[in-house]
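ingest -> validate -> predict -> emit
validate: passed (alphabet ok, no gaps, 203 aa)
predict: started
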Amino acid sequence: MSSGTLYVVAAPSGTGKTTLVKALVESIPNITVSISHTTRPKRPAEIDGVNYHFIDQNTFKDMIKQEEFLEHATVFGNLYGTSNTWVKKTLEAGNDVILEIDWQGYQQIRRLFPKCIGIFILPPSAEALSDRLVTRNQDKPEVVKQRLADIRETVSHIHEFDYVLVNDSFETAVTDLKTIVLAGRLVERIQTRKYAKLIEQLA
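emit:
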């Protein structure tokens, strides 16, 4: 069985990456999103084990010591980490995995998985992004200020990614994501493993 492909999706806060990724996963089979662990407080609409695994700082630090994370980072004062065991098992089962993480995590992941595919999502404009962060009313004003201040730093890492798309038209952005994943399933290293017997017969 061919192993799955690891995708990393990153974007400035408020760009809509989580909604886009959810639509992508619902549109094609054999792809799933890694659920990160975080010390961030749970928002009212969020569900533990669905949006994130919400844990305290001591538990998170113990998991770091036990090397249970593929990557981990501090973002706006909260800790985020990706489960090592879950990702590797899911990929080995032949399923594609998407990580929704920031550029810090992507740098760590790329060292471990050089063939992972990085996708960076841009908002349609700075004004649209600012408006969305304010109107979605999910964070305290000081956190919103932090997120807005972090945009420039985040975007400065865009050249480290393989693909860039703009979330202007939601339908177009989902189609772009789907195209990237479907094309990723046709690359030589995957297809030659998948069709090894056919290639052997023809060689």
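The CA atoms of residues 39 and 56 lie 5 Å apart.
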